Amino acid sequence: MKGMPLQIMAATEASPLLDAARPTREIEKSSVLIAEKLDSVLKSLEDLKLSVSENTRKQTDVESQPKDPKEDLEELEALKILIRNAKSIRRVCDLAGMTPSDEKLICDVCSLEDMRTNNGVFQYHFTLGTDFSKANQPQAFRNFKKSIARHQQTQSHVQNLIAKREDSERAQKLAAKNQSVGVTVGKQAYWLLKYGRPFADYEIDMMLLSSAGVNVGNLNHSRKFASEMRKPFAEAVNSRIVTYLQTPLEATLNLPPVGIVEDKVTTRRRTGQLYGGIIFTPNMPSLLSPVSLGILPVKAHNGQSIANDICKACEKYKISNNQIAGFGFDGQYFHLGVDSKLKDTLQLDDTVGFIWDAAHLLQLADKDTRKINKVASWVDVIAADIAAVLSKFLFGKTFGSRDRESATTRY
Q: Which of 137, 150, 319, 370 could form a disulfide with 376 if both were Cys (CB 3.0 to 4.6 A apart)?
C-alpha cells in the first residue's frame, strides 16, 4: 500500500462495507420498481374501468336516442325488394306481417280505421296457387306482391308501424318492471314461509322495503298474497325433488338412494301420516339432506292400509324400489306389520332395513324412567297441564268423524 494515494487507500479499505451495503440498495431499488409497476397496473385498471363505464353510458345513450329516419327508409327499400322476390304466399306474409283470411290478406300493423277504407286489405284468389318455388308466377301474383310492397312505404302504414314499435317497447319495459317487482315480493313471501314467520310480517316487510326505496309495485302487499304463495312454492320444490330423484349420480350412474321415515300426527281428532325422505346429496354441504314428502290422512289404522299410503307417497315422487335404502318409524308400525306389508307390496330385498327410530325409543325410555323415579313427577304435572289446555280446543267427536270423511278432498 506504500506510495498509494490516500483516497485510493481509503476506498480500498472501505470496500467490504460497500459490498455489504450493495444488496440493501438493490433491494430498495427493486422495491421502488415493483411499487411503480403496481401503480402503473392500478392506473391501467382504473382507466379500463372508466373506459368500460363510458362505453356503457354511450351505449345506453345510443339505445335511448330515436332511430334515424334514413335507417327506416333503407329497411323499407330492402323489405320491398324481398317482397317482390318472394315465391310463396307464406313468404309474403312473413315479410310483410300479414294474415291470410277468405282470399284476402290483412296487414297486421294497420289499424281498423285504415282497413275500413281497404287500406291494408289485399285481395288474392288462392285458387291461382300459393307456392311458386318450382313454377312460373302468374301475373296476378306479381301484381299482388307489388301492391303489398307499395303499401309498406305508405305514410299511414309507416305511422302505424312506428306506433306499434313504440307500444311494443313500452310493453317490454313494463313486463321487465313487473317481473322485477314480482321477484321482489315473491322472495319476501318465500322468506316468510321458509323460516316460519307469520304472514302478518309480510305487510310490514313491504312497507319497510318501500320506505328504503325498493320498487315493490302497488299490488299483492297483503298477508293474503303471502299465504296464497304457499301452494306454488310447494309445487316448485316438489318438482325439483322429483327431478333430482330421477337424475343419476355422476359417481355411480345410479339414481340417488332414499331413506324414508314416517310418523303419525293427530291434531283436532284428525290423524295424518307424515312422510319424509333422507336423500343422498354429494354436491351439497351436508351429505344427507332431509326433505318433506307430504302428509296424507290416515283412512284405516291397519298395516296394509298404512303400507299402501306409503307406496302412494313413493309413487308421487317416482321413487322406485331399488332406490329405497331403508325405512324408519315407531313401534306401532312394527306392531301392525307395516314392514312385512311393504316388503311384499314393493318387492323389497333383504338389504332394505327397517329401523325403530331412536327418538321414539328415547320417549319410551323417558316414560319408563318417570314411572320408576317419582322425582321426575313434575314433568307429568306439566304434561297434564298442557293436555288440559289443549282439550279446550278439540273438535266434538261427531264433528271430528265428519271432518275426517272429507279430509281427503282438503289435503
A: 370
| Beta carbons within 10 angstroms of residue 278's beta carbon | 17
The three grid cell numbers given for residue 169, joined into one nine-digit string: 317497447
Contacting residues for 321 by C-beta, under 8 A, at least 6 apart = 346, 347, 348
Count how many residues are written for the chain: 411
Q: Considering the entire predicted model, what is its pTM?
A: 0.53
- Average of pLDDT values for 92-116? 74
SS3 letters across the chain: CCCCCHHHHHHHHCHHHHHHHHHHHHHHHHHHHHHHHHHHHHHHHHHHHHHHHHHHHHHHHHHHCCCCHHHHHHHHHHHHHHHHHCCEHHHHHHHHCEEECCCEEEECCCCHHHHHCCCCEEECCHHHCCECCCCCCCHHHHHHHHHHHHHCCCHHHHHHHHHHHHHHHHHHHHHHHHHHHHHHHHHHHHHHHHCCCCCHHHHHHHHHHHHCCCCCCCCCCCHHHHHHCHHHHHHHHHHHHHHHHCCCCCCCCCCCCEEEEEEEEEECCEEEEEEEEEEECCCCCCCEEEEEEEEEECCCCCHHHHHHHHHHHHHHCCCCCCCEEEEEECHHHHHCCHHHHHHHHHCCCCCCEEEECHHHHHHHHHHHHHHHCHHHHHHHHHHHHHHHHHHCCCCCHHHHHHHHHCHHHHC
pLDDT tens string 361-382: 888 887 787 777 666 677 778 8
